[in-house]
Amino acid sequence: MIRVAIGGPRGKMGQEAVHTVMNHPEFELVAVLDYKDIGRHLSESSEFPSSYTVPVYLDLKDLLNQQKPDVFVDLTTPHQVYEHTKMCLMSEVRPVIGTTGFTEEQLKECTELAKRMHLGGIIAPNFALGAVLMMKFAAMAASYFPDVEIIEMHHDHKLDAPSGTAYKTAQLISENRIEHMQGHPDEKETLEGARGAFYEGIPIHSVRLPGLVAHQQVLFGGEGQLLTIRHDSFNRQSFMSGVSFSIKKVMDLEELIYGLENVL
Ligand code: NAP
């Protein structure tokens, strides 16, 4: 049995992950981390059935020291995730991070820390298999179509922009794309932000609307043609096979992996 703890159990992703881990024959949910006092056990929270007698911790250090999980799954917020990841690695607990919002500097620091600790970890900006394939296909297409723009669309409760998936997609594209100036050289924004945010010259546009879950289009333009690669997550269930896969996979790793495409 793999001993798992989850951060952010009341959240939309966290609730799905709690049920996924509870119902998985190879996983044991040993604790959850919240920052609000929801009771001593998950079963005291109205979101969960009375059979979920899993202890709730308000402090990650206490959780890691007392429960000693094998894996900590973080589904909290961009404000906390970096500290949580570092704390897990320092406590020799393997992080599986679904929360987005890492800076490049923070990623580098966590990667180096995992290396020093000889400890596995996974940071997955997107756990959905289809989204991972979308990123791979986009990276392939970039060698042939250097003119590209990314449109990512999410629900309006999302805290970070652009999404971790869009950021990662742009990174993968830029590794394969011939460096290239897009658009008209004299282009001028008459309304600031009209052309989006830029990663290595690739525009990223972030849409936030109620009703959306997680969607992305990568548009490649060529002479007389447009290639669109699109992925839609219609509900949080789409991420759960990736969460289970990562919990198992991280047990065999000795380094921090950024992006599921590197371990699938
Ligand atoms: P959400 O519904 O807002 O859930 C976040 C939960 O974390 C909330 O219950 C929040 O409580 C709680 N929380 C905040 N700070 C905390 C802390 N310090 N300790 C413990 N819990 C804390 O958001 P979500 O849609 O589930 O998404 C969570 C994260 O996953 C986001 O960063 C999102 O971008 C990311 N995400 C990743 C994937 C992926 O495939 N990797 C897919 C979807 C979303 P309160 O609401 O009471 O503040």
Summarize the helices and strands and which ones pair or pack.
Blueprint: E1 2-7, H1 12-22, E2 27-33, E3 56-57, H2 60-67, E4 71-74, H3 81-90, E5 94-97, H4 104-117, E6 121-123, H5 129-142, E7 147-154, H6 164-176, E8 197-199, E9 202-208, E10 214-222, E11 225-233, H7 240-249, E12 256-258
Parallel strand pairs: 1-2, 1-4, 2-3, 4-5, 5-6, 6-12, 7-9
Antiparallel strand pairs: 7-10, 8-9, 10-11
This protein binds NADP nicotinamide-adenine-dinucleotide phosphate (NAP).
Describe this structure in words.
By secondary structure, this protein is of the alpha/beta class. The chain folds into 2 domains: 148 residues, Rossmann fold; 105 residues, Dihydrodipicolinate Reductase, domain 2. The protein is 30% helix and 25% strand. It has 7 helices and 12 strands. The protein has a 7-stranded parallel β-sheet with strand order 3-2-1-4-5-6-12, with helices on both faces. The longest helix has 14 residues. The chain is elongated, with a radius of gyration of 20 Å. The model has no long low-confidence stretch (mean pLDDT 96). It binds NADP nicotinamide-adenine-dinucleotide phosphate. The site of NADP nicotinamide-adenine-dinucleotide phosphate has 27 residues, from helix 1.
